[in-house]
Amino acid sequence: MFVIPCRCSVDAVVSMMKYITSTAKKAPTPTVVAEVKRLTNGGADVSIEALGIQETFEKALRCLRPGGTLSSLGVYSGKLQMPYDAFAAGLGDYKIVTTLLPGR
Question: Per-residue pLDDT tens for 24-83?
Fold first, then answer.
């Protein structure tokens, strides 16, 4: 999962990338969402989910600030569920955009 923080400083982006790369080899933990929210002062404007699994979809959704956009590039092979709390009960004004990347 990659997050594009649109409202933070270059130092915050560098700090976030160091954190993400330092935890990439470990099992994903809920602290990634907390760190993104901390570095972006409440959540990212845009997050990109490209793996196509439930866990990364939920984390990408949880990283958003109210009114944020989740760009889902992943291809889901199973049932994808919308977690009620991560979707802010429909009140978070989130936008979810899906697309397929063209193959070569």
Answer: 555 555 578 888 898 899 999 999 888 888 888 888 889 999 999 998 887 777 788 887
| The total number of structural domains that make up the chain | 1
For residue 32, what are the contacts with CB-CB under 8 A and spacing of at least 6? 1, 19, 20, 23, 59, 63
Whole-angstrom Cα distance, residue 26 to residue 48? 20
Instruction: Give me the domain span that covers residue 69.
Output: 2-86
The answer to pTM > 0.70 is: no
Using alpha carbons, select from 57, 60, 58, 59 the residue that is nearest to residue 47: 60
- Checking 16-19 for CB contacts under 8 A at 24+ apart, the result is none
User: Does 45 reside within a domain?
Assistant: yes
